[in-house]
Write a structure and sequence with these properties.
The protein is α+β, with helices and mostly antiparallel strands. It is built from three helices and ten strands. It has a seven-stranded antiparallel beta sheet. Strand 4 (61-72) and strand 5 form a beta hairpin. The protein is globular, with a radius of gyration of 21 Å. The N and C termini lie far apart (68 Å).
Length: 179
């Protein structure tokens, strides 16, 4: 009888250890990806899909927005970019894109924190920025930067109570390299 109890204890211990290991495994499988003809390299936590769409940024101005993105651990990771249209400045386009992004999240001024962000090789006019949005529905972190005639936005989107998002965003943003 004692051997049977020992065997059951060992099996339960091994199963418990196996479950603990699986539970602690990081679901974010970081891998290198490139954007815009390999001018930008970054780490993404999953294999990205790619899409393009037209975006209205002025009364008579539409631009093509190219997006790479994927979903992992309940969060969405994206990297989007667009070319600055002729006759507009990168600052004007960036401001319009930021306003449109915040409006789509129904983010009020009290929900948004903007800070400087450093990225070697990015243009300094306008300077790179990191934006955090937190409201009852969303938690989003975005970085914005300009390289030549392209504006980029990297973002991590999640539910307002997603505890992993700040660490995941930090890994994602610090993995961006300009080539």
């Amino acid at each position: 009888m004692m051997q049977k109890i020992d065997r059951v204890f060992k099996v339960c211990s091994v199963l418990g250890l196996a479950l603990l290991i699986v539970a602690c495994t990081n679901a974010l499988n970081w891998r290198k990806a490139t954007v815009n003809n390999e001018r930008v390299q970054l780490l993404m936590p999953c294999k990205p899909d790619q899409a393009s769409r037209e975006m209205q940024i002025g009364p008579d101005v539409k631009v093509s927005l190219t997006l790479k993105g994927c979903e992992a651990s309940g969060m969405h990771f994206t990297m989007a970019h667009m070319q600055v249209p002729q006759g507009m400045t990168s600052t004007d386009v960036l401001t319009k894109w930021q306003k449109a992004s915040l409006a789509s999240m129904q983010a009020g001024p009290q929900d948004v924190v903007t800070m400087n962000w450093s990225l070697k090789g990015a243009q300094q006019a306008p300077p790179p920025e990191r934006v955090r949005v937190q409201n009852g529905q969303y938690q989003v972190q975005m970085v914005w930067f300009v390289l030549a005639d392209q504006i980029y936005q990297a973002a991590v989107y999640g539910h307002s109570k997603e505890k992993q998002l700040p660490d995941a965003a930090e890994t994602y943003f610090t993995g961006i390299e300009l080539l």
